[in-house]
Design a protein that fits this description.
The chain contains 10 helices and no strands. It has a domain of about 180 residues. Helix 2 crosses helix 6 and helix 8 runs antiparallel to helix 10. The chain has about 260 residues and is mostly helical. It is elongated, with a radius of gyration of 27 Å.
Length: about 260
């Protein structure tokens, strides 16, 4: 992947081209008002993209300040997900040991039918916990991508916004909004999961004490904490990304000062 400086350099060159084309259209002798208005908009787009280019690292610093002020840094994100993974691995191994032990006893000793029938649901529960572990791995990989690539995504967004004829203005703004919102908000995901899910250590002890029939009671809680809640939270972040992206790439560019052309 290209460096951030190279992407900003290309964006600056393209913004200069956009400005030149806009000035050419605006000063064209063609007596079409819409043609001149479009040239005026291209000039403003080029200036707007150039502002993003020159203030790029200042904006990055503001994003980092906002993210750190919320109290949930990316180091805490990795630590929390590591703890969740360890708890799930412990829980899965505990239930696997339980399943293997019961299977061995059933093979050599006659047990009541109801005890034999719970081996199937227990195996399904182990498979379900394995799926949850896989989903946590997906969340972690996605977070690693955001944390490592958000500056590159913003730089690509600026590059797209600098293209002439507004070819990439919309998608460039949405890409910038996506990178900013997810970099700030995604580290909070493991906090939400930990706050709504039961302790997995207590879950093993609880089921060992009360019996396998209690396992089915935990399915809705785990589905809500590890699947439904992350999907809803990511959807909320996507919504904020679209709102911020539409603000960044609005149809009209409002500069902080009036420029008479």
């Amino acid at each position: 992947m290209y460096s951030i400086f190279y992407l900003l350099y290309i964006a600056s060159v393209i913004a200069s081209l956009t400005y030149s084309l806009g000035a050419l259209f605006y000063g064209s002798p063609i007596p079409i008002s819409s043609f001149k208005r479009f040239g005026h908009k291209m000039i403003l787009d080029a200036i707007y993209a150039d502002i993003w280019i020159n203030l790029f690292f200042f904006i990055i610093n503001i994003i980092n300040q906002i993210q750190s002020s919320l109290g949930y840094s990316w180091s805490i994100f990795y630590l929390d997900f590591g703890m969740l993974d360890l708890q799930l691995i412990y829980t899965i191994n505990a239930f696997k040991l339980w399943y293997i032990s019961l299977s061995a006893l059933v093979s050599y000793i006659r047990f009541p039918t109801y005890l034999i029938n719970v081996l199937g649901p227990l195996l399904q529960y182990i498979s379900f916990l394995t799926d949850i572990l896989f989903s946590l791995a997906i969340y972690l990989e996605f977070g690693t991508f955001i944390e490592g690539s958000y500056m590159t995504l913003i730089a690509i967004g600026v590059l797209l916004m600098s293209l002439p004829f507004r070819m990439g203005k919309g998608i460039g703004g949405y890409l910038i909004g996506f990178a900013i919102v997810f970099y700030i908000g995604f580290p909070y995901l493991p906090v939400l999961i930990s706050g709504t899910s039961p302790s997995l250590y207590d879950l093993v002890v609880h089921n060992l004490q009360l019996g396998l029939a209690e396992i089915s009671f935990n399915f809705p809680i785990l589905v809500y904490s590890f699947i439904i809640l992350p999907i809803v939270y990511i959807g909320i972040l996507m919504g904020f990304s679209f709102i911020l992206g539409s603000f960044i790439s609005g149809y009209s560019v409002r500069l902080p000062i009036n420029i008479d052309i």
